[in-house]
Amino acid sequence: MVDFQQRDTTRGLGSDDEDEEEDDENEAEANPDPDTDPGPGDEHEADDGGNDGEGGHDSGSSGDDRDHGHDHGGGHDHSHDHGGDHDHGHDHSNDHGHDHDNDHGHDHSNDHDHDHHHAHDLSSVGAAVVTVSSTRTHEDDPAGDAIAAAFEDAGHEVAVREILRDDYDKIQSVVDVLVGRSDVDAVVTTGGTGVTPDDVTIEAIEPLFDKHLPGFGELFRRLSYDEIGTRVVGTRAAAGVVDGVPVFCLPGSENAARLGAGEVIVPEVGHLAGLARRNEDDGEE
Predict the structure, then answer these.
(1) Rounded CA gap, 247 and 186, in Å?
(2) CA 124 to CA 151: how far, in whole Å?
(3) What SS3 class is residue 20?
(4) d(Cα 10, Cα 81) in Å, to the nearest integer?
(5) What is the sign of the dihedral through the CA atoms of 91, 96, 98 and 99?
(6) C-beta of residue 186 within 8 angstroms of C-beta of residue 241
(7) How many angstroms separate the CA atoms of 78 and 56, rounded?
């Protein structure tokens, strides 16, 4: 009789129990424990979670484990943004303090400089008015009258008025004497600033200038342009400082005298006269 069990054993065939153990081992290999050996799906979720952490706040709307990991990454980004807000607040604080301190100091410095710059301004000026004309008289001198009125209306005094002919030497000598008078702080001439051969006021007075004031002539011509247009190119109005006294040379027309005296000279004469004689008043050489 054939012993089938022995035959099977000889041929390598096991019993049912051995078959069951072998099946269990195969099943264990086919279905590993998820707690100890993560499968390909878990690895994908881990990768997704890392990507979500970098990806941004918009993709965190679903509720599975992978999205939960993403929300945590989103929370990390939010914390980072908060730190950015903190830095912004720091910058704002610095900017505020910096601007406030600088503006305050700058304004204070400007006020100080302005007060110092005007410390020597003369509140009342004694003016000498000189009309250069071969036809005008003391009774008929509209240009001289306009200049005198501009000074007096502003609270200044007219110390002396002169009428001179168009003579180079006479004009120069009279102006040289006037600037040496103690009651004269400024001299204003009218007439002789044109281009005719007998207009010699500028030629006579300019050699006396210690300093030229080119801005006076520039501004006067700019203002005159609104009244006479391009004819202003024939006007040689000029100004300068002679022995610490400002001297202004205006054209001979009444309108020009009124414009120059009222709009340019009188508003600045106290300031210019004070600056021109500042060293003398301070006792400096």
Answers:
(1) 6
(2) 10
(3) helix
(4) 75
(5) positive
(6) no
(7) 10
Cα Rg of the chain (Å, integer): 50
Closest CA to 262 of 157, 155, 149, 145: 149
Tokens 């002679």 belong to which residue? Answer: 242
pLDDT string in tens for the chain (285-residue length): 555 555 555 455 444 455 555 555 555 555 555 454 444 444 444 344 444 434 444 433 344 444 444 444 444 444 444 444 444 444 444 444 444 444 444 455 555 555 555 677 999 999 999 999 999 999 999 999 999 999 999 999 999 999 999 999 999 999 999 999 999 999 999 999 999 999 999 999 999 999 999 999 999 999 999 999 999 999 999 999 999 999 999 999 999 999 999 999 999 999 999 999 876 555 543
pTM of the predicted protein model: 0.60
d(CA 152, CA 158): 7
Query: Look-up: residue for tokens 């970098």?
Result: 54
